[in-house]
Amino acid sequence: MVSVIAYVVYAIDKKAAIKQRQRVSEKSLHLLSLVGGWPGAWIAQQRLRHKTQKTAFKVVYWLTVVINLACLLGLTLYPYEG
């Protein structure tokens, strides 16, 4: 569900960029990725061609992906047993 939200927010930001209106902050986009929306964010970046040229943005985005995958791996290898 978070991925769908991330995609929609990227689309809103892309439209705002085109119309030169108030944008969604990069911090908000990264937060969406961090809480699990990174697949939707990646699809939006590719399909909408949005946020693909800004190196600093891409570095932080991929860091959120790594953090997500590390958490998933940790939960898989060391499940919570109460």
UniProtKB/TrEMBL annotation:
It comes from the Bacteria. InterPro entries: Cold_shock_CspA (IPR012156), DUF1294 (IPR010718). The chain crosses the membrane at residues 59-80. Keywords: Membrane, Transmembrane, Transmembrane helix. It holds the Pfam family DUF1294. This is DUF1294 domain-containing protein. It comes from Vreelandella neptunia. The lineage of its organism: Bacteria, Pseudomonadati, Pseudomonadota, Gammaproteobacteria, Oceanospirillales.
